[in-house]
Design brief:
By secondary structure, the protein is of the alpha/beta class. The chain contains eleven helices and twelve strands. The longest helix has about 35 residues.
Length: about 350
């Protein structure tokens, strides 16, 4: 797996060298202290890649979780330090930043440390807060009574989002007293080891409503057969290129795009006499739902980039990378995710769950 990501690893190493050189230059410290800080940074950076080796599943769960969190947080901090030093270097080129600010500078060292501390403390707090998004859906008289649907995507439970996190999310869901719960894929992060060891299936069984879900790309990364087994144990109704009709609603779950042989939406026998909801993890080709008379589509996958300015990238890549959207008579919601992949930071994006009132 490391070989597959070799180009990305090389880019990250280049960023590490760039940031490391600037940190060494700017800190007004003796050499032994600089070497100590650089060494700690290298260890934290290396922990990111432990997760791609068999060692991860051999470490004690608490230690593996710490390695995952430290490694992934280091990458985001590295990304923001790169942006900060690039701005300072550009400032030097246009003679707005004096050279002394980047060499043995106590004010710059203190200022940079305080800036990064504020950014990432706030980013961690913001991630832990789950935003409640309310939307209205109109069945056009096709259901007998109003229904409350709680929707989510991208829980990414695993080494970083542990059972204690999942328990809080289940409490939020149950507090809405939903008639059903819909999850648009990526319940699993990438390893089943922490999910099984912490018996996270028991938390899903606490949800006080039927749960319907589709697969995401991370279920394929973790192992799709194992995902199906876990969903059964968790009491989740998994829809893989299949549908179910309940309470006047037809819920269609598409297989993820990871399966190149997944069923085409036009090949489903869609009953438009019911209110139709499509669960499709990756929000590509939104026109298909419109062309096939789907009333509402729930997707996820994008996380809206998780941290700014990556949100600009997802906004450019997708027709809708986050939020409510319409095409003709079809309504969409692309969730930025209740959980997160990698570092538990949110900057310029939000972790959320959706509460839909179906009239």
């Amino acid at each position: 797996m490391l070989l597959r990501f070799l180009p990305i690893i090389l880019i990250l190493v280049e960023l590490l060298v760039y940031v490391g050189w600037h940190v060494w230059a700017v800190l007004p410290l003796p050499h032994w202290a600089k070497w100590t800080l650089v060494g700690v940074g290298l260890v934290c950076f290396a922990l990111e890649f432990v997760g791609f080796t068999p060692l991860m599943n051999r470490l004690p769960l608490g230690l593996a979780s710490s390695a995952y969190n430290i490694g992934n947080k280091t990458l985001i901090i590295l990304f923001y330090l790169t942006m900060a030093f690039l701005l300072l270097d550009l400032g030097r080129l246009v003679h707005l930043v004096p050279r002394t600010m980047l060499h043995d500078s106590l004010p710059t060292s203190i200022g940079m440390t305080m800036l990064m501390t504020v950014i990432f403390v706030c980013a961690g707090i913001h991630y832990r807060h789950k935003e409640r998004v309310a939307i209205d859906l109109d069945s056009g008289g096709r259901i007998e009574k109003p229904l409350t649907l709680v929707m989510a995507s991208d829980l990414h439970i695993g080494y970083h989002n542990r059972r204690s996190d999942l328990a809080k999310w289940v409490d939020l869901i149950n507090a809405e007293k939903p008639d059903m719960v819909l999850i648009a894929g990526d319940i699993i992060d990438y390893s089943f080891r922490p999910v099984i060891e912490e018996n996270m299936a028991a938390e899903f069984r606490r949800i006080e409503a039927p749960v319907y879900a589709c697969l995401g790309n991370h279920e394929y990364i973790a192992g799709e057969p194992d995902a199906e087994k876990f969903y059964r144990e968790a009491g989740i109704n998994l829809l893989i290129d299949s549908s179910v009709t309940t309470n006047g609603i037809t819920i269609i779950g598409r297989d993820d795009r990871s399966n190149k042989r997944r069923k085409m939406l036009k090949d489903f026998n869609i009953d438009n006499s019911t209110f139709t909801i499509l669960l499709d993890h990756q929000p590509y080709h939104l026109e298909e739902a419109e062309q096939n008379g789907i009333d509402f589509q729930l997707s996820g996958h994008t996380h809206r980039g998780q941290v700014w300015p990556l949100s600009w990238v997802t906004d450019a890549l997708y027709e809708c990378s986050w939020g409510s959207h319409h095409r003709g008579a079809t309504q969409y919601y692309v969730s930025s995710g209740m959980g997160i992949w990698g570092a538990k930071f949110r900057i310029g994006t939000q972790s959320e769950y959706v509460v839909a009132k179906l009239k």
